[in-house]
């Protein structure tokens, strides 16, 4: 948590807020841009990927703009408090990241391509912050849904570290952990597709400008 300018610190399970057995709010049924359901179950041919790369408003837009992505939703993941609220997650006392769940068609966009977008859309060397956004909820994380996703994520982290180091950047602090045992709690309705509802709203997403060596396409910009 962030107290009087001190460095944010993750709570222990004992320090975390108690939470609640059920979600304290409603989640919209459908994506405002893509039109597909937000919550599962999803069609069998689709796969799920979970990413955290700072404020989830701008992060979600990066993924819904990607061809092959079927739906996206934002939420809280990787902490201890069951069914947290936004205010609780931002207090630093739940341990959660601000995450984006990406449901995608692997015949159109690969997991490796989503990893490339993930790495290039933020600075994964900043620890408990992204730019001016400071707090444990803004840390970089990948929560994987299969051994194949885990291996791809680990490989991409190593590849990106090499090019970041060569460009004068520091050590990647991104967590790569199984999604199993780390539930994704969908956020409140007003956070879902926030930048579609509020086109001029805040977006703190910004990368290092260094291309991630995954696939064959160079980074834009």
From TrEMBL:
Keyword field: Oxidoreductase
Coiled-coil regions, chain positions: none
Leader sequence residues: none
Enzyme kind, highest EC tier: oxidoreductase
Keyword tRNA processing carried by entry: no
Pfam families given in the database record: PMSR
Transmembrane segments: none
Catalytic residues of the enzyme: 55
EC number(s) per entry: 1.8.4.11
Gene3D superfamilies: Peptide methionine sulphoxide reductase MsrA
Domain of life: Bacteria
Domain Peptide methionine sulphoxide reductase MsrA: 50-203
GO MF terms, alphabetically ordered: peptide-methionine (S)-S-oxide reductase activity
Keyword Oxidoreductase among record annotations: yes
Reactions performed catalytically: [thioredoxin]-disulfide + L-methionine + H2O = L-methionine (S)-S-oxide + [thioredoxin]-dithiol; L-methionyl-[protein] + [thioredoxin]-disulfide + H2O = L-methionyl-(S)-S-oxide-[protein] + [thioredoxin]-dithiol
NCBIfam families membership: msrA
Stated role: Has an important function as a repair enzyme for proteins that have been inactivated by oxidation. Catalyzes the reversible oxidation-reduction of methionine sulfoxide in proteins to methionine.
Family: Belongs to the MsrA Met sulfoxide reductase family.
Protein name per the record: Peptide methionine sulfoxide reductase MsrA
